[in-house]
Automatic annotation (TrEMBL):
Catalytic activity: beta-D-fructose 6-phosphate + ATP = beta-D-fructose 1,6-bisphosphate + ADP + H(+)
Cofactor: Mg(2+)
Protein name per Swiss-Prot or TrEMBL: ATP-dependent 6-phosphofructokinase
GO biological process, one term: fructose 6-phosphate metabolic process
Pathway the protein takes part in: Carbohydrate degradation; glycolysis; D-glyceraldehyde 3-phosphate and glycerone phosphate from D-glucose: step 3/4
One of the record's GO molecular function terms: ATP binding
Site residues (Important for substrate specificity), renumbered to this chain: 187
Active site: 216 (proton acceptor)
Major place of residence: cytoplasm
GO CC annotations on file: cytoplasm
Family to which the UniProt record says this protein belongs: Belongs to the phosphofructokinase type A (PFKA) family. PPi-dependent PFK group II subfamily. Atypical ATP-dependent clade 'X' sub-subfamily.
Binding site for Mg(2+): 186
Length: 445
């Protein structure tokens, strides 16, 4: 996996998580924490966590493992910054859907209420729009979140589109919110940073914690993003269908388009999981259509040899084959040209030109892969992210996201999390596995 935010180029100062003030209140979890410290299984992790609250500049010093950047460890603190009885929290979900959103919402509500005694939790509707609009937030109670973790989507709704940070902070001030949990992708996290900055400018005690969401798995300093595993598992079902169709007809080609705007992780993992794919096309690896070494010729060759072939293409692949028309979505993200439709047509034209028989089946699982409930692995991960987010917020951290990096929950300053992108490394072992499993040439030019 390649992260364009190079850990080595990030200074310890940049990695230091912002704090709202000195910790003062003994955590309601202190007893639990102390009892765990005596257990050998927890000492190592909690040593770091407890140390963090007693050592100045701990973020820079905690790094004792050579290949880890000095990210502050996640987890409960002995002392907390906010008084639970006087604290109101809020949750908002933004950007595209992702399996596990409801799990995170429920995890936050239950962790806040059951382990910290924060029972006032508001849900703002329809993403950042809910922080500037007229709609009243919903009070998130135990009853309201019961069972939501078994459903896809988000009970709060989501949206794209820029909103004024000043108006959003005014709304939060109006409702007396001191903890804001923002669940979303890189755009959302940039918005969250602006909210945190505006709150600081106003001298408001507001902890803004991001829970990074992306089925594309493209946020740096996160081993794997929540919902990704569920999404590629669902995509694997579509690939199996395409393979069944293609292998059941003469000269069959199954073409499957999956999501992945800048990063081809879903395409790679789904292709490896199904292990019946002949070509994987991802944004990170440019390819040409024409020529003896181009994609079309290689595809024909494979169908002739094997009788059928399956192609998986990520939606962001091959965008250089189009002239960009400048179209953007409500949030300003470039609208992608439809690579699935282009490939489908070019394969049909190519076979027509060579007068060979073709039976092409095109499958676009698109939204079906991201609207499903989280699988068991993602459900566990979402809950643990929610717990880590609440620990961070209650301890007075702000303008940061929680994530699991090299197997540990860590606090990542927002500018670090949005400063780069995880992509499939053309020289890495994941892409090597794809080449081994598909037998496709290293270069399709
Ligand atoms: N640079 C930015 N500054 C402030 N707000 C932003 C910025 N970029 C995006 N946002 C806001 O964040 C919200 C979500 O952004 P966006 O639609 O780009 O999705 P995302 O969080 O990147 O998730 P996805 O991975 O689904 O695309 C939108 O309401 C948008 O207004
Ligand atoms: O159709 P929408 O909601 O704009 O979302 C599509 C985009 O969202 C994602 O699923 C997540 O960022 C991308 O893979 C995709 O390009």
């Amino acid at each position: 996996m390649v992260s364009t935010a190079d850990p080595l180029s990030i200074t310890p100062a940049a990695l230091r998580v912002r704090r709202l003030g000195e910790p003062g209140i003994v955590s309601p979890m202190a007893e639990l924490l102390q009892s765990r410290v005596s257990s050998p299984h927890y000492v190592h992790e909690l040593d770091r966590v407890l140390l963090d609250d007693t050592v100045d500049g701990a973020a820079a010093r905690l790094c004792d493992v050579a290949d880890l950047p000095s990210l502050e460890p996640g987890g409960p603190r002995e002392y907390i910054y906010f008084d639970p009885a006087a604290t109101r929290a809020a949750i908002v979900t933004c950007g595209g859907l992702c399996p596990g959103l409801n799990n995170v919402i429920r995890g936050l509500v239950l962790e806040l209420a059951d382990n910290y005694g924060v029972t006032e939790v508001l849900g703002f509707r329809d993403g950042f729009r809910g922080l500037v609009g007229d709609s009243e937030p919903v009070r998130l109670t135990h009853d309201l979140v019961a069972g939501i973790h078994n459903r896809g989507g988000t009970i709060l709704g989501t949206s794209r589109g820029n909103q004024d940070p000043s108006r959003m902070v005014t709304t939060l001030q109006h409702y007396g919110v001191s903890l804001l949990f923002v669940i979303g992708g890189d755009g959302t996290l940039r918005g969250a940073a602006k909210i945190a900055d505006e709150a600081v400018r106003r001298g408001m005690r507001l902890a803004v914690i991001g829970i990074p969401k992306t089925i594309d798995n493209d946020i740096p300093f996160i081993d794997q993003s929540f919902g990704f595993q569920t999404a590629f598992t669902r995509a694997t079902d579509s690939i199996k269908s395409a393979h069944t169709e293609a292998s059941s007809t003469p000269h069959g080609v199954g073409l499957v388009k999956v999501m992945g705007r800048h990063s081809g992780f879903i395409a790679c993992y789904a292709a490896l999981a199904s292990h019946d794919v002949d070509f994987v096309l991802v944004p990170e690896m440019p390819f040409s259509l024409a020529g003896e070494s181009g994609f079309l010729a290689k595809l024909r060759h494979r169908v002739r040899r094997q009788g059928h072939a399956v192609v998986v293409v990520a939606e962001g692949a091959g965008q250089d084959l189009f002239e960009y028309d400048g179209a953007v979505d409500a949030s300003g993200n470039a609208r992608l040209a439809d690579i699935g439709a282009l490939l489908r047509q070019r394969i049909i034209d190519d076979y027509a030109a060579t007068r060979e028989e073709l039976s092409l089946r095109y499958v676009d699982p698109g939204y079906a892969i991201r609207s499903v409930p989280a699988n068991a692995w993602d459900a566990v991960y979402c809950l643990r992210l929610a717990q880590a987010a609440v620990h961070a917020a209650m301890a007075g951290r702000t303008a940061m996201v929680v994530g699991r990096w090299h197997g540990r929950f860590v606090h990542i300053p927002i500018p670090v999390a949005t400063g780069g992108r995880n992509q499939v490394d053309p020289n890495g072992d994941l892409w090597m596995s794809v080449l081994e499993a598909t037998g496709q040439p290293e270069r399709l030019f």
